[in-house]
Amino acid sequence: MLTSKDVDDEAPSAEEDVSSSGQSTPPSTIFDSDETGDQVHLRRVGIDTPMSRDSSLSPTEPELSRYKSAEASAAHAISSDLSKYPRLDKKSQDEVASKYRQLDERLQSEGLYDCPYSSYAVESIRYLVLFVLFVTCLHYSYYALSGLFLGLLWHLLAFTVHDAGHLSITHGFHTDSCIGIFIADFLGGLSVGWWKRNHNVHHIVTNSPEHDPDIQHMPFFAISSRFFGSLRSTYYDRDMKFDTAARFFIKYQHYLYYPILLFGRFNLYRLAWAYLLDPAQAPRKGAAWWHRYLEMTGQVFFWYWYGFRTVYLSIPTWSSRIVFVLISHMVTAPLHVQLTLSHFAMSSADLGVDESFAQKMVRTTMDVDCPPWLDFLHGGLNFQVVHHLFPRLPRHNLRRAQPYVKEFCRDVGIPYVIFGFTRGNKEVISRLGEVADQLRVLEECRKVAAKDLIGGRHGR
């Protein structure tokens, strides 16, 4: 575990949500001010429920008092949050966009879009070592260790799939797609086609509760109380029901975060098959029409070598098989932590169409600080701000690009948020805990409302 590092001088202690008239369902916003020394943490609550409208609650009730006092501070808190970013007028945002284009040209002139293939040679050595350890331990019946090394191999391979999905290896569509299919489908049982469909949307509408599938994890997680309103996902084309299961999980989501992520890879199998078997999702026409069939071949191959040859034939007992499968899958949980770490604690507010792309990407994303020698373990996901600004920039050049991005942010007045790994995890758990607390307050208010309603009827 890395030691926690504070935010750099240019960044606030936490990035927060701000309200917007451009939202499709504008939330009511509550901020809790918690001053510690010189740091003020402004925490967004966006409640879009009947509680934000007229209520029959007695103003003497403590739960209602907490709600009302927080609501009263919203105007000041929103103003404070908006002051962190450039104005949304055309002139200010045009300046941000212009300097962003200049930065892109600078990175191109510095050769940072050129893939350093020697870095993949080093990556390949790591893959080979882990593969040999996996096979050797399997041969000598050290099944738990074998599963550990296979899980680590999958963890590292996922980063190259990410690179290929963004066409940042060869910059060729079919070549990089085939690299991704070979690693994801043939070696990992995942679908690079599903990932590209999902991830491209995430990059366009980052941290939008209605539109970004990467933060739509109901009933297990909600990073904003806007999810309490059973929002409709435009990606999945269905309502994200705020039902009994959601109420249970979200109340304890800050405790369940890591345990649930231990099983994240199993969900990726489900999503892969849902994508490949649905003709409405996988491409049937155009240049990529054949990718679906190659992926299906890869899926069959994966379940042959992993499910049949490795788990069933090579491991003699069911208890050992279960241990091997669980360890090999749970070891990949840090990947799911990394995927959520850069966004869960960041703003999920929609500032409307006037906000520039560059500002939105930085506002909704954080970087994770680590020493250069550990970059391979993060796979470039520790430079998510840089990556979201320049998705096709090769992973191994992201550290070189980071100082340029920081300079750009200072120049245009956009806070650049970077935490150490430990601090970043604390921010995520804190955000999940805040939303869980908001749900508890809301349920207490509803109980009080029900008592008042029943009491009023009996008093007549």
TrEMBL record:
Sequence segments annotated as region (Disordered): 1-65
Alphabetized Pfam families for the sequence: FA_desaturase (PF00487)
InterPro entries in the record: FA_desaturase_dom, Fatty_acid_desaturase
Organism of derivation: Aspergillus fumigatus (Neosartorya fumigata)
Top-level taxon of the source organism: Eukaryota
Stated name of the protein: Fatty acid desaturase domain-containing protein
Entry's transmembrane regions: 127-154, 256-277
Any one GO MF annotation of this record: oxidoreductase activity, acting on paired donors, with oxidation of a pair of donors resulting in the reduction of molecular oxygen to two molecules of water
Any GO BP annotation: lipid metabolic process
Biased composition (Acidic residues): 7-18
